[in-house]
Amino acid sequence: MADDSTSNTNQSSAEAVANNDDLLNQILVGLPIRSLLQFKSVSKHWLSLITHPHFAGRRTPNLESSGLFVECYSKPLLIPGFDFIPFNNLNPTKPPFTTHPTFVGDPFGIRNFQSCNGLLLCDGRHLYIYNPTTNQFTTTPEPPTHRARTTVNWFNFVCYSSLAFDPSKSPHYKVVSVYSSKTLSEHYDVEIFSSETGLWTPSSTNPLRADNVNFKNGVFWNGALHWIGFWDDDSLYLNIEEDRFGTLPTPPTPDRRDWKRRRDFWESRGHLHLIDIYGSQTKQFNVYEMGSDYSAWFVKYRVDLDAIPNAFPEMVCNSLGCYDFFVLSLIRRENDDESFLVLHIPGKIVRYNFQDNSFSTVLDFPPSHKKFRIGCLDDAFEYVSGLCLKMFPAQNRWESPVF
C-alpha cells in the first residue's frame, strides 16, 4: 500500500507540474538547447510553450562561442567543406555540419557566410538565414532593387549583405544590403529587411557616398553594423534602429609604420575589436577595443608572436624574416585571462593566449590542405548555440550530416 501511495503521490506531482504552465516554463527555460529540441516532441502543448516568441526571450542567451568553422576545399576536386575547431577540449562541441550547406532551389550554392549571435547569413542566389543548432532555415525575400535588375546589367551590380541579431533584446533580426553599380562604385544604396514585418525598406540615408569601405563582412555590435575602411578614417557604422550612419574614430598608428598588411574587425562578448598589422616582418601588434560611446580606440591586448616561428619554422617564408600568419578570429571569455586569438599559419591553426603569450595547435591540416596560401581561409565564422525556433517554417530543414 505504501508503494501505491508513493506512486500516486508522484503521479499527482507530475500532473500538477504538467498542468501548470508557469511552473513548466520555469523548468524548461533553464534547460540546455539540445534538451529543448528533444522535448518539443513530447506533446503539442510542450511544443507550443517552447516555440512561443516570448520563451526564447526569457532564456538568458549564452552568446559565448563554442567553436569556429573554417571553410576549406579538398584537393584535387576542390570540394567545399568545413573544418570545425571546438574551443573546449575537455568537453568539445560536436559540429552541427561539416559539408557545405546547400539549400533547395539555389543553383549557385553559398558564396559567403556571416555569423551573428547564433544565426548564419548564407549568401547565394538568395539570402538564407540558417540556425545550425536547430538545423532550420528561412529564405529572405528578394530586395526590390534586385527584382528591378535585368539579366543584361546584373553583372554590373555589386551587393553586400550583413546580419544584425541580438537575442537578448529581440527574437527578430534584420538584414542590411548595400549595393551599387560598378560604374558608380563610390555611390551606394542601402535597404533593410526586418523579420518582424517581412518587408524591405530603403534607408533614409540613400544615396550613400562611401570611399574605400569594405562592405563585404559587416560586424554587428552595440546595435549597429560596422564596416572596415581600407584607410585610417574610412570605417563606417549604421545604427540599425535610428537608420543613421556614423564614422568610427581613427585608430592609433605606430610611430614608424610600414605598409598596412591587414586590418580587421571582430566582435566578441559585446566588445568590438580592431587589429592593424603593418609589414611582413611584424610579430608584435596591438588589439584595440572601441569605447561603447564611440569616443576612441584603446589598447586592450598586446600580442607577441616571437616564440611561434621557433616552434613552427614553416611560418618563416623567406630569408628576409617575413612571417606567414593570418588572424582568423578573436575570442573573448567571461574570465578575460582565458581570451585568445585563432591564427592560421602554414599547415596549422594555432590558438594564442593573450594572458601569457602561450600557444597550441588546435588543427593540423591534412596533406590535401597544407598548401593553402595564408589568407585563403579567411571564411571563418564562429558557432554560437541559439534557439530562435519560431521564426523558421517547420518544413525548412536542411538535411545535413550531423556528427
Q: What's the CATH architecture of the largest domain?
A: 6 Propeller
Strand residue content: 35-45%
CATH class of the largest domain: Mainly Beta
If helices are DSSP runs of H or I spanning 4 or more residues, what is the number of helices? 7
Per CATH, the superfamily of the largest domain is TolB, C-terminal domain
The general outline is globular
Notes on the structure:
- The protein has 403 residues and is mainly beta.
- The protein contains seven helices and 24 strands.
- The strands form six sheets. Strands 7, 8, 9, 10 and 11 form a five-stranded antiparallel β-sheet that branches. It has a four-stranded antiparallel β-sheet with strand order 3-4-5-6, with no helix packed on it.
- Strand 18 and strand 19 form a beta hairpin.
